[in-house]
Fold:
Amino acid sequence: MSQRIVAKSTKNIGAITLLKPIMDALHIRETVDRYCPMERKRGLTQGQALEALIINRLISPTPLYHVERWAKLYALNEICGIDANRVNDDRLARALDAYFPHIADIEVDVAINAMAKYGLEPEVVHMDTTSLYFEGEYEESDMLRLGYSRDQKPDKKQVNLCLNVSAKEGIPFMHGAYPGNKPDPKNGLGQHRTSQSQTQTQPLHNGR
Structure:
């Protein structure tokens, strides 16, 4: 008498079903693949690798070397068509290396997609700044510098970050990274001009 063996597996869905339509609407995967094409079309594309990493960072942040383990617990393949067995730290690192030279162009394209999709009118922009401090010397870094420390750690080198948010809709659409010793007014002015020129919008009014 033959017996049937049924194998079952359970995977988490989480917020992937909410994030995936938004990422598709912003054409994130397609934009990354356009700027970072693969020499050999096999395995994950750069856009797929970055999409998996973005989803991980948004719903369950984990170190790069644990993303593969996380992906196997979630319905990444079923919802996004991304094979969890290929989301290893080496593959993600290569995708980040390919993405890095094109950060500004990709961000601008995604921001313009968001404006078109959601009808954003960034005539008034709120800008906020923060900083990240690092342990170590980083003597060769042009970005990590000693400066005003929001973390009350004046002896730690840091990098300053700026985020632009449309005042009317409250949606973030541009960001910038600046040396840790650069004061906020200069960061804000630089970010203001960058957002205006790259998105080709009307003059922005900083509502910080």
Remarks:
- Strands lie at 124-134, 157-166, 172-179, 205-206.
- The longest helix spans residues 103-118.
- The two ends are 75 Å apart (CA to CA).
- The chain is about 40% helix and 15% strand.
